Amino acid sequence: MSIRTVVLAVLLGVLAWGFWQSGDFTEIAAGVAIFLFGMMSLEQGFRTFTGGTLETLLEASTNRLWKSVGFGIASTTLMQSSTLVSLVTISFVSAQMIPLASGIGVVLGTNLGTTTGAWLIAGLGLRVNISAYAMPLLVFAIVLMFQRNKMAKGVGSILLGVGFLFLGIHYMKEGFDAFQETFDLAAYSMEGMAGLLVYIGIGMLITVIMQSSHATLLVVITALAAGQVTYENGLALAIGANLGTAVTTALGGMTAHLGGKRLAVAHVVFNVTTALVAVMFMDWLRLGVDFGGNLLGFAEDDFLLRLALFHTLFNLLGVLIFAPFTKQLASLLERHVTFVSKRTVKPQFLHKDAFKVPEVTVAAVRKEVWHLYENAFALITHGLSLRRTVVRSEQSLSDAVARTQRIMPLDIDDDYEQRIKSLQSAIVEFISESGASGDIPAAATEQLYELRHASQNIVLAVKDMKHLHKNLGRQGLSRNRAIRERYDEIRLLLAGLLREIEQLRQEEPGASTVLALDAYKVRVERFYREFSVRLEASIRERRMRGAEATSLMNDAGYAYDIARMLIEAAQILLVAKEKEVRLAQSQLALSDEEIEAAAERVSSGEERTS
Amino acid sequence: MKTKKLLSRLRDFLDAERTDQEREVDSIRQVLRELREKQRKFQAKLDDNPERDDREEIEGKLQAIRTQRQKGVERLRVLTGRQDGFKD
Angle at which helices A516-540 and B55-80 pack, to 10 degrees? Predict the structure, then answer.
């Protein structure tokens, strides 16, 4: 049993016990749950609604720091979800579509934007009877969500989110008001540095459990309004909420790509430093809040708005400290945060000793490209939702393909980084270094050039597999038989090729080994021609729609490219060692025209009669 | 003895192009032999069961091998200068 499961079981147990003991506690917990559900709905609504707007704006906000920070503030204020904005930013930084420094700018802005939540809850949520607005909002939301139009559904989700946020706040307020009559949490308040640190810890814990600093602030502000926590402890809880966000970001960042990890580290550094500064200058900050509160006309005992102001001020302080150094922070992270995952495949055969003898260099590179191929083989086989043992066995591939019940989930992007790109980079670097290390005969240079070409083909095949896998996930097991059959053909073509290459590798290498793959080129050519004919027939017979046929045609194109790329790579890898045999093999290899002609003859049935 | 060895090396050097050609001819013959053997094997599979599931696949292989063999024979003709038929 994992720690996660134990923690979950304990949490559920504690909640159940709490519900048994106190109806007020149930109301408070239900308020938090409804609030969190509202946030999820809001996030989902914005996801369908933005339809790329968020991404377009993010891309446009990269050239200046103020733009990135402004984007972070505005988008988080609007959506009330720093998680959504952070996730989109992480994906952009990971894909290197925006530089890390801009990503950091957005994260700074997000932290400031999230403070608007406290203002909304303190300023509006607890003063106005917002539950009165929640009910109509929920009704409108559900009506809209029943519509077929995507935009209407998106608006419905957003309204549903806002409705539930309001309702959650209402229940929390009611719960704490009732709780106040029976139990006084404020009796546990602590003063001084110890109180500060303990309550920071509690705020952090609540945020980590609820995965939302917004929800923590809601709890803190409503508890403060009901007099269940003191103002001093409330401030500490707010700092803890910020730290809790850093923990959740760090956990999220662990699964991200390198760029995302760096951004997550930046987020943690920012939040921890800001919290430290806030603790160190607590008295100054409180003076600032008093001064600002008086300036804005807050009443002396209006601790709710003062807490919201404190939350904004200390985050603003953090932004002001970090903003001038985003570029430096980015370059520091780029230098020092170079996570090498345990899963990253390392080259096995590239040792610099090999540079001494050109033939050894070529042999080492050839073995490493085979190593790269093996990784691509695993990735492509799983991408086709087949097992490697099946492809390597004598079992019927058509049966295995037809029997497939589910498309294997696969993070091809991650696997590509860890298992393909890392190896290819090592191969390319090794080849370049070998050239610089001394005189290499022309024949060896040519072979190294070809091996580099082979590695490039393998990489391209994996990239195409990424697109194909995405569509296989959507349509590969379609209930429409015509579509399923076409996808099965695509899978069978590639699985057959992988098996053919495996068999050739296992065979005793002969003078004609490499030429055997020409026959598969003929098969690939025939597949592509006949596939289009069958698709046209399916459209004519109304067995599938035009759009479905177009997607299938694109996927057939991917399969064609993957197959051609793998064949070319395997032909380079399987080529004979002896120069003369290599020459003979190249003389007899079929040209593209000859392959097309052979495919034509087999398709037309000429082969049977010849 | 030394002179004889030197003369032999000189002859090899002058004859390098011819030696390369001979080696290429040998290699093509070797490839053609293997291809003929493969063709015979595939043809036998088809003759045993003409309606087998992988018939088209085998036909494709046969088609590729035939074309490769034709190309090999052509190349041999060019290299050896023989115009008459080759038995590969």
Answer: 140
Report residue A339: phi and psi, to 5°: -55, 125
Tokens encoding A203: 């705020």
Does the residue B74 lie in any domain? yes
Is the CB of B15 inside 8 Å of chain A's CB atoms?
A: no
ipTM score assigned to the predicted complex: 0.76
Tell me whether residue B71 is in a domain.
yes
Cross-chain residue pair B63–A522, CB shorter than 8 Å: yes
Determine contact: B21 vs chain A, CB below 8 A. Answer: no
Torsion of CA A226, A231, A235, A240, to 10 degrees: -50
Closest CA to A472 of A490, A458, A455, A492: A490
Distance of alpha carbon A485 from alpha carbon A482, whole angstroms: 5
Q: Does B49 touch chain A (CB under 8 A)?
A: no
Chain B partners of A590 at a C-beta cutoff of 8 Å? 64, 67-68, 71
Single pTM value for the model? 0.55
- Average confidence (pLDDT) per 10 residues, chain A, 610 residues: 80 90 84 83 69 64 82 83 72 70 88 85 71 86 87 86 84 73 66 83 83 79 83 88 81 66 86 89 87 83 84 90 87 77 77 77 90 94 92 89 81 82 91 78 87 94 90 82 91 94 86 87 92 88 86 93 95 84 86 89 64
DSSP 3-state percent helix, strand, coil across chain A (nearest 5): 80, 0, 20
Q: Half-sphere exposure of A458 toward its Cβ, with a 13 Å CA cutoff?
A: 33
Nearest CA in chain B to A596: B64
- Taking 90 as the threshold, does the pLDDT of residue B81 lie above it? no
Q: Cβ contacts of residue B41 below 8 Å, gap of 6+?
A: none
Q: Helix or strand or coil: residue B54?
A: coil
Q: Which residue of B has its CA nearest to A519?
A: B61
Distance from CA of B38 to the nearest CA of A (A): 9
Rounded Cα distance between A478 and A422, Å, is 35
Q: Which two tokens stand for residue A478?
A: 């379609």
Cα–Cα nearest to A306, from A317, A324, A291: A291
The pair of three-digit structure tokens given for residue A109, joined into one six-digit string: 């802005």
Measured between CB atoms, which of A512, A590, A602 is closest to B59?
Answer: A602
User: Taking Cα atoms as reference points, which of B55, B47, B54, B49 lies closest to residue A394?
Assistant: B54
Examine residue B7 and state whether it is found in any structural domain, yes or no: no
Residue B58 lies in a domain: yes
Q: Which domain holds residue B70?
A: 39-79
Q: Write out the two tokens for A213.
A: 């600093």
Q: How many domains does chain B have?
A: 1
For A545, the 3-state DSSP assignment is coil
pLDDT one-digit tens code per residue, A598-608: 888 887 776 54
CA dist., res. A379 & res. A387, Å (int):
10
pLDDT digits (tens, 9 = 90+) for A31-41: 888 888 887 78
Query: Measured between alpha carbons, how far is A144 from A135 in angstroms, rounded to an integer?
Result: 14
